[in-house]
Fold:
Amino acid sequence: RYASDKESDFIIRPSASFDFLWPVTEQNSLNLRVDGGYAAYVDHSELSRWFIRPGSELAFDVYVGKVMLNLHDRFTIMQDTYMDPNAYGYGDVSRLENVAGIGALWDLNKLVFRGGYDHANYITISGDDAGQQPDGQNEILFTSLGYELQRQMMAGVEAGFGFVNYDESRYIIFTEAIQWNVGVFFEAPLTEYMKLELGGGWTSFDPEVKANVDVSDTLDGFYGRAILRHRLNQYVDYSLSAGRNISFTFYGGTMDLYYARLQANWHLLQKITLGTSFDYDGGTQYDYGKDEFDRFGGGISLSRAITEKLGASVAYRIYVRDSSQSRDYTVNMATLDLRYRF
Structure:
């Protein structure tokens, strides 16, 4: 419950995933993926709710000449509050995020153009005093132009524009905002088993702040991202990512966020995979005040294939958030997963 009087519970999460691929023609295909279930709390049944994991979507890939178009509708019901580093105070927030749009890829040999448009809806489903998290919409335009310097090595420019709109609520500091970014990117294989992706530039987030809120109107600065993927050998592979971004937060404020992620898989024993991870999120959140926070997370898991179709894993994860506005919490999770593939 993210409170000083901490409570524990036993949660049963039955879930199922469904994948469907229909090759309409030799080049065009329809894809449907749904992955979700229900979280049943044993002691605190009022927290029980449905969830849909990220990656669920209905998508149609179609080719028009040399241009590949992707029409999509992606949907998620966020069920675990800790998945958002700037969410706090409520353990039962549930929100539907639906993103519908179109993406385009135009490959001109050395030149590659990408672009698209998305319309996102954020709809609150449940939560203590659910009105604190208003519904919202987001219009997103994005584009990039890359040049292939040599095989698998590309550099280019990128840009984006977004318009955010929240339904009127006394709990948020703005009802609409404009965000844009302009930058460059670079991606290349450093070795046969190592790949590096870099990107960065300038971004600006400009909200229409309410008159009774003492917050700076515009938050802007450099954004950046770096991703390294490496298969060290047959026993170890890992990915490392870090970056900074500026955007709107879960409760309708603005946030300047720095992050780092390390995920490693250790194939040391036959049929058993050991996974380790470390997460860091930190920065400044602006809502009804200025909150400077740091959040550290780590986890370890063991997974094994029991039969050809049945697999199991055990895991432990912890998150610790330290805040200048007394928005601290500690989350401990021990999980047992059984998965069967039909």
Notes: The first strand starts at residue 11 and ends at 12. The chain has no helices and 19 strands. The mean pLDDT is 88. The CA atoms of residues 297 and 319 lie 4 Å apart.
